């Protein structure tokens, strides 16, 4: 890695460098701001860039460190996050026209815990409107462009987060994952993204989309970086009573454990069906690497995956429509066409269908856990294809829009429906140079295991260190 540009270091490395005073928070923050200024016109990754306040905060962090005071392990580290995490005094648009002038009066718990660890705010990151879209298109603010090829999508809804981390504009970024919105940008942009177990990280102060599916998690360069962030954010929160109490694992320690002895399942069907040949190739190569590093890899027979995808889609549609009902009545003209269409579809789902989908979750999770009883994690593609182009996936509210969305999300939605954790890691590239990622699907609340496997894989591969040429 370069030692001349501090922005090219990982989150863990830059935090240690600032703490050791080998580089100042101001130098690091200025390096990020310089890269943002150069890249924003072509990537459209940021919603707001707050250069003056970021540099002032960096100077304050440096002054504290000079006095021997440190706020935490991320003291002076500049970060930017998806523009759906409320922070008091800041406009939080949620990628929408409806909320483009809304100033937050509270701060999200996840964001506050990172601030308490010492982070500096660079600004906020672009996203799909109301986090309801898997491609990265936004009818109001334009699409975010993939740093590996700006004609291609980043994936959504955490589009700015994926692009900004890949282009080394921020060391990490919060995303959210309701139907794949952390893992798809990680896959399409060649970064690491962690979808947490429902109940692991507080959702208080994060824009809701689907009350039973939403999860908070990071996108970063490495599994180790994700482990660091998860350790800071996880745990009980009186503002979110769905958040689970209890002692937390040492996620960072898990990333130092060896691959040897890990048991990894490969689905016999569904996740290996109708794959782009290059995704299939990368899957085979990754399996070979895991075996070479001492993991045992076996086939697993997962039940009812298409039904899980359909059930997730139904639950998401109803819960999103319920949240947006008032605005759909009062301000329908202020939605983008595709988001409005999808929200309106949710109004047409019979209550009995929603209740049946909710009742099935427990039995479906039990069946899944029985099927994976002999493995520690399941390895599967995030999506069946590398990143499509912006033009070919810009389907708006056309008749085939839902089909395009379903094709991209069919491997991520089952995991959301079951509430499971999943770590997306970079695992290869297409012949045209587009990143390809895979996901490690874990047991409930066993993020430590998938972080262990991901970090061990990254110790013997270089995919996570590759950078877009233009960055």
From TrEMBL:
Functional description taken from the UniProt entry: Hydrolyzes indole-3-acetamide (IAM) into indole-3-acetic acid (IAA).
Keywords per UniProt: Ligase, Transferase
Entries under PROSITE patterns matching the protein: AMIDASES
Record keyword Secreted present: no
One MF term in the entry's GO annotations: ligase activity
Upper lineage: Bacteria, Pseudomonadati, Pseudomonadota, Alphaproteobacteria, Hyphomicrobiales
PANTHER family assigned: AMIDASE AMID-RELATED (PTHR11895:SF176), TRANSAMIDASE (PTHR11895)
The name this protein goes by in its record: Indoleacetamide hydrolase
UniProt-listed InterPro entries: Amidase (IPR000120), Amidase_CS (IPR020556), Amidase_dom (IPR023631), AS_sf (IPR036928)
Top-rank taxon: Bacteria
Gene3D superfamilies (UniProt xref): Amidase signature (AS) domain (3.90.1300.10)
Organism this protein belongs to: Rhodopseudomonas palustris (strain HaA2)
Stretches assigned to the Amidase domain: 27-451
UniProt keyword Ligase present: yes
